[in-house]
Amino acid sequence: MDFRGARRMARHCQFAVLYLTTLGVNVLTNHSVLNILPPGEDALACAFILATGLSAALNFLGMKFWVFRFFPHSGVRNARNHPT
Fold this sequence. Notes:
Layout: H1 3-36, H2 41-67
């Protein structure tokens, strides 16, 4: 496997780890909010909004700063910015 193949495999692993982590954060946030608030439709809506917002924000930050981070020695920011 050459460098590009290894890099591609590492990026796929980063995607998987990030998605599984944010899925866990979503489930734990939803569960925690539902346990804290009294039962009802408002609790469901609040838990959904908080869990979705938190996991989306973490997913965005993980993609920006971890999966598609800048590689200063190569000058490559990510595949889309790399000249072909």
